[in-house]
Amino acid sequence: MNDYIPIAALNQYDYCPHRCWRMFCAGEFLDNQYTLEGTHLHERVHTVGDGYREEVWQVRAVWLKSERYGLIGKADLIEAHDGCWYPVEYKRSAKGEFDNDALQVCAQALCLEEMTGQPITQGFVYYAQSHQRQAIALNDELRQAAIATLAAVKTLLETGQMPPAIYSPRCRGCSLRQQCLPQAAPKVDRYQETH
Amino acid sequence: MGTVYITQDDAFIGKTDERLQVKAQKKTLLDVPMLKVEGVVVLGRATISPAALTELLERKIPLSFLTGTGRYLGRLEPPLTKNIFVRSAQWQAAGDSDKAIHVVRSFIRGKLKNYRSMFLRAQRENAALNLQAAITRLEQAIAPINATDTIDSLRGLEGAGSAAYFGGFDALIRADGFRFESRRRRPPTDPVNALLSFGYALLLHDIQSAVNIVGFDPYLGYLHTQRYGRPSLALDLMEEFRPLVVDAVVLATLNRRSLTLSDFTTEALSQAVSLSDEGRRTFLRLYEQKKQSKFKHPVLGTQCTYQEAFEIQARLLAKYLMGETQQYPPLVLK
Questions:
Q1: Is residue A1 scored above 80 in pLDDT?
Q2: Span A4-16, mean pLDDT?
Q3: B215 CA to chain A: closest CA distance, Å?
Q4: What is the spatial distance between Cα B288 and Cα A97, in angstroms, rounded to a whole number?
Q5: What is residue B79's DSSP assignment?
Q6: Which positions ≥6 away from B153 have C-beta within 8 Å?
Q7: What single DSSP character describes residue A93?
Q8: Which candidate from B311, B316, B322 shows the least CB-CB separation from A184?
Q9: What is B17-42 written as a DSSP string?
Q10: Which residues are A137's β-sheet partners?
Q11: Is the Cα dihedral A55, A61, A65, A69 positive or negative?
Q12: pTM, whole model, 2 decimals?
């Protein structure tokens, strides 16, 4: 596989490696209320081209690519003020449900740095539910984490090795729960059939 | 909603916006949101509009065609999922592998244990029945399953168990005028066999849908082998559900007098017995009710419907074949 890694896969991998495998290796995806709300929100963001908002130049739905990291994806919104670029990622949730949005913004920034040749110091996550903008500092620590996740996702996509499905509270909001049945394996192995 | 059954000859299946509509002779017979439809089964002759066809495929809703008497003709279904991993595990276990032997044991154990439960329950409810001999024969077929390690010998045990079950089946029918001597198919020549055959055809549609959703190749089975054009894996997984769903519905339909002899007709030349239109609608309604009824899944410990259990069992089978679990537990209910 000499393919680019979809930026979205990083976020999924951080949420749950098994879900990432189902989506990107097994090609399974099911909408649930959360993903539908998210898609709808993204459609709204992506249908607008570019424009100005209070002296900030904005471009929406931009294709991003990095040859160095082998990444590909789309940014919801890129903003420029004072000659600097900032990626902005839209999320349906309120802040802090799962803290993997920073990773996605960081991956977008890695692409953007390569495409513009300029260093990017911060990005933003916009939370639709609370209308909050959260600044993300693109420090070394976050960059290392993004690159490490990228390497893990690369291995996953190349080998197709299924990571185990491990049950956690996150499973409750997962649209693939019916396919994955995360609690089934231990139950099956404990099960004693009636004689 | 679940599965939509279309029994009216010359019905027209169309779509308007996000709704599936069935019309006949200018009358609307059905108008439901596509979101609620899990499958469409056409019995006999019906026409479907290209728009409705596209919509069904895009939404991954399978469409099956059965003859008016319920014989399975074929189906139009969404492409297999991209989940090549499930199919690759399925193929790797093909033939006489340890995994194949394990799942064949499970399929047969599941079916025969559920057969035995039917008899034990009937015997408890009616002490006058003399089912003990049949129960003993069933147990003699169940006992050696786990120590039998060729698929052919396992098929022999399945045959012996089924013979014992159908040998005693007549005792479970309490409705006057309905008798069961032995299993007769192609064509069924008595009402009970006609109902069983019809029910198994409906069940096959449902199980095949489940097998397909999970990502299996329905034509590669372990107990049923690659006979041309038979969805063998669906037939394999169907075994444990035959008594739980179809036999249970057939017996309930007869014993509660939901159908009477006047609902059946016999074709003079072949002696093939089939249901009247009205009788067919009644049976389909009862079958659908059964599928939507809930019970506690013995392995997962959660409530589910039979309709959901088809998919759960297919997923448990996938987990076993892919090495996620140590066993495939058939659905055995008390």
A1: no
A2: 87
A3: 9
A4: 40
A5: P
A6: none
A7: S
A8: B316
A9: TTEEEEEETTEEEEEEEGGGEEEEEE
A10: A122
A11: positive
A12: 0.75
